[in-house]
Amino acid sequence: QLSCLVKMVTLYGIPKDLDSYPKDLLLFLSPSDYAATGSCRQYFANIGKANLDVLQRESSQRKQLLLEALACLKISNTQVNEENAEILGRLVCDLGEEYIRSSGGNLLKQLSQCESFLPDQEEAIRSVISSGNTTFGPPVAWSAFTLNELSGLIPVFDHSILQKVPK
């Protein structure tokens, strides 16, 4: 339905007010389509707010979006800073474990919005959390606020993490 809607919306060219359209619609446009109305950074900031699950997790379209986002943000290694993590939004759900490990805690806030993880992503999240080298600090210093911020990651935490969290 969304791809059909995109065809209707773009029938006479790319509308100048694309930012006012539902974010999910942008998943079916390319950054070059969007370029006339804004920057690729703006495009991926909008994509990061879209429901990526509209596209299948391992689909070529979703993989291509992530590759284009990394290129747009000039992320050439596996380290993602907080600003770029914010722009990527839900696209961080598709980043491999090497990105999660080398970005430290920069991705945790966005990762907590993901629906599911691959086993290697889960292991990387546990490793980053256990290190305590995040803005959230070590689990022994967490509060109810911290748990609320990371609530989407709680199913990933193992016993060794959970037992350190203060009651």
UniProtKB/TrEMBL annotation:
Pfam families in the cross-refs: Mesothelin
GO biological process: one example: cell-matrix adhesion
Places the protein is found: Membrane
Major localization class: membrane
Top-level taxon of origin: Eukaryota
Signal peptide (from-to): none
A cellular-component GO term for this protein: cell surface
Keywords in alphabetical order: Cell adhesion, Glycoprotein, Membrane, Signal
InterPro entries (UniProt xref): Mesothelin, Stereocilin-rel
Family: Belongs to the mesothelin family.
Name of this chain's protein: MSLN protein
Organism (species): Chionis minor (Black-faced sheathbill)
Encoding gene (name): Msln_0
